[in-house]
Write a structure and sequence with these properties.
Blueprint (H helix, E strand, L loop, with lengths): L13 H9 L4 H12 L7 H9 L4 H25 L3 H14 L9 H10 L11
Helix pairs in contact: 1-2, 4-6, 5-6
């Protein structure tokens, strides 16, 4: 379950969920709490989820769609940042790489990391050896 880097960037992942389920008295309640704590945090979206359920849209499909849209917007912003010059650009790209590199093994997020690497003028060796 581990190995995806979520815990490294402060997002509860498989390890956290396994621990929660192992040490709880009510697994269904633990799963529900995990979903509430780690779901999309837009209060205006909660009622919409029920509408999507009525239309047979799977939550996984919905969340994947949101993730893809946000990923594409992030890649576009990184590309814009990459067109700039100077130390501020390099500093921001390095900071983004540090924060995002732990999730490089997640296929859906890999393009973000690769976009950052593409725009960096210098990449440290530790990022070139996975």
């Amino acid at each position: 379950m581990s190995g995806f880097g979520l815990e490294e960037i402060g997002i509860p992942g498989g390890v956290y969920l396994k621990e929660s389920l192992t040490h709880c008295t009510d697994p269904l309640k633990a799963i529900e709490e995990f979903q509430v704590e780690n779901g999309i945090l837009l209060p205006s979206l909660r009622p919409m989820l029920h509408l999507l359920d009525l239309h047979g849209v799977k939550r996984l499909d919905f969340h994947n769609s949101i993730m893809e849209e946000l990923r594409d917007k992030l890649i576009a912003q990184i590309s814009e940042l990459g067109k700039r010059e100077g130390r501020e650009r390099d500093r921001k790209l390095k900071e983004l790489l540090t924060k995002s590199f732990p999730v490089i093994k997640i296929k859906a997020l890999r393009p973000v990391v690769m976009c950052i690497l593409k725009h960096m003028s210098h990449v440290e060796d530790k990022y070139l050896k996975i």
